[in-house]
């Protein structure tokens, strides 16, 4: 058995500039943030993100200038910031090509990728401008010429249903990322992955990708995970690297481990409004720390303890969330 | 109604609730028994939890992969572990979106940045899509959920710039939409053909409740919130409002509903701040 | 909350003659056998079975003359009988139209049904006679005229991939059964279903169907199932009837509850070789008992105890399976 | 080899093993380190478990929904709870077939009722499909697994009527197949186009090991089992066998392999009955 365990730095070195990436999680939940920060520190660039949905993690990558193509259906910070300022600026400056799909469309794109088929049919979001052929941005950028194996020749296709006479289906092309980066609650030494609570679209994302990097809150014995195999998400052979990084999804939240740090995200969202304040934020929280451990120390123990999940409820009962 | 009379009948007076309270209460009243309800983040969650705690035996689905939630603590978004409490299924998006497309959803509660007279909603850009003034988060599941549920209720803030004759970009389909690949403007029924299941039935704003004439596809004023004048409503809309079917005032929250909202649903004040 | 609990007889009365049925389980595992026996006793007929895979349960229904259309990829008794004698005879007599798909094809048919789309694309089983247009048996029987909403207008279609230039895909039509009958380990009073071990294609089968009948080894409190919602298969609102029937999948096996009774299946397989011995078998084991309880009593306690699963291993450690 | 010499080197003599033993052993030797192997019910299970216990770190997938099984008790079929022991994932068919189509499977171990010179396998009917002599179980996953894995090894009984020039019905594709919808006979590579991943690489019978010339698509004799004469082999085949590349005798089971088979893999005798 090959040893898949490595350091965070080594895992991030496996990601090439220019590659097509996707991630675990949903909006501001269970995102591989330690990898995002390390990617920014390592100066990754020219990335093509294809995500079932996006969030603060991608706003950070985009803000850091690491991204040239973004395909998804949503980006923001949920309650903590409605406008994706980084994407907004990079779109206007022409540094990013952004391709919009609906949630079901891009979920089906990922599922088609996971199933090894070039597309999936769907009925979702007919009548919307998401399907407007004038708004095929990768097409407009000349990137649908078949040269890049990660970019399909059309944004959509329409084909009639030959079976039940239901009319014209929307076909959405498979997503075929190079690498999927998963933040999971637990992984075994051989690579088996357990995700607790909602699994979001993690299975589709990991299975669509050619390579999978797993960051786990805890590395546990394989034999432990294999006592309850119906709770696991991925088999060992789909996983290429495993890194144990406690609090590695902070400031996003992890079921059973810790809550979202809303205040921290709100601060980032606010800093992202202009380049200067964004640079200052990166200076303090990303470039200003050497490692994930240093980052955690800077956050302080008492702060993290307020976010720590209650063992029964699976969320923090101590975090201050509202006006009370 | 006069304040004393209102109070006697259990209804709160204008100075006793906020517009967010009324939004949540009016939305909760749209839910019917045994319905399967898809709820988005924010006010939709308040509405569905209010309906549940008030005794309507509806089932709530959250987009990120929880089905039949019975949250004890208000989720801050649909990916929140708080959604998982008491649910029958914790799975993922594929389960939920497949069920949606299979026609299992009776009612959707969604938000929107801007809406037009046909119920088309835009959460993607302000301005020309190819040269946007402001980029918004994008569709998320709004368009899918709205397009495949039997009824959709939009809950949103009403301002002139958000209530438009025509939205800049159709993120989520209303009753008159564009039929692709041709781009022809058609009735929603035609765009969906055999998959037509329904569409937006109400828009609940901080000022009024609107409904739709399904044939013409146009929005009309159903009820106006207490304290809001007709011309104030029109001033906050970018197209001529149809008052011809207005039934009068929106029924205000009851004290019991407000109690549930502030004591049970959102005691932490995640989305609600009590009127001081 | 409406009460979904009913008796086995009442549940089977919900199944109309002529309807399209599908089932939980895999070959000879976790099949709703108590329902099958009761269907035979109630004289169901003209059924259209569409199954991801078939097995002893369908050989029994077919042998009893209850089935007029069978669509699947496999039928038999595994180790305990290789030839599906009942299907063989009814095909030759012209009483059954049998339509063959491959496993992946019919699985995707069920998944398309579950997802509310009219078809799914696949690459599987190209080059085989499964795709031979001369072998479209429902077409030959004149049943692909669009009159029956459960029968698509074509067995297959072929459409080119417009996205990655991968050539001609096989499209398989959605399966749209009227009723799915599930045998599960546990169900809640409201209808939430838990399946343990392998889930086979149960989720697809149940979600494709318009109505779901659940037979459970045990009915347990909803609150118990909802403490671990990641282990459940179906939400309550997809379930129309719940019946508690211990040993209700016997002689097929149930993970964590009991093993397959190979000798019993072998006896049926052998009896099914001709009509006379088959009638005698039905006379003894189906028509000869009034109820499931009487059937169990006839089997005897000591016999069932040899099949009962070990609590840790989830299979019987006492059953005699081989020559030793 | 002479019996005494064989024994000295650890190999069992002809009278010390059954043809089922040799089938399992020969099949197990096809497995390479770290491979993901899809195994069907019966002898394929013996082969893969023998390979695992012998120390080949392969991963086994069973069709019904178990991945990386480490069974302690031999499963009687792929739906058996015994498949679940020690596996990393207990899920269902969709997971497994999606992964198959995604190209994750290195090697498939499958059975078959009849096979032809191009490796086409029939498990559906004997005779004309439209008027069959005997109905068999049908494809199951045989065709899918074989068509999408990188290599397939068929394990089967050799009889003249089962080893045919052309099968009555192509259930599972070999190297020359029919390309639908046209029905043209083509090389497997052409039928699969960009999805071509490989195909049948070996057929292991109770008499010999066969392999394929991938260009002509035809089967040839690779090794003949100890005690089987060339003409006996030909007598049990319905087409002229190609002996031109025959490498000699199949290596017999070692005592260690037999021990593992009878003491560890199948001590209950589910599939194996010891030579008396």
TrEMBL record, chains B, D:
InterPro entries per record: CoA_trans_fam_I, NagB/RpiA_transferase-like
Short name of any one Pfam family annotated for the protein: CoA_trans
Gene3D superfamilies: Glutaconate Coenzyme A-transferase
GO MF annotation: an example: CoA-transferase activity
Signal peptide extent: none
Family: Belongs to the 3-oxoacid CoA-transferase subunit B family.
PANTHER family: ACETATE COA-TRANSFERASE YDIF (PTHR43293), CHOLESTEROL RING-CLEAVING HYDROLASE IPDB SUBUNIT (PTHR43293:SF3)
Name assigned to this protein: 3-oxoadipate CoA-transferase subunit B
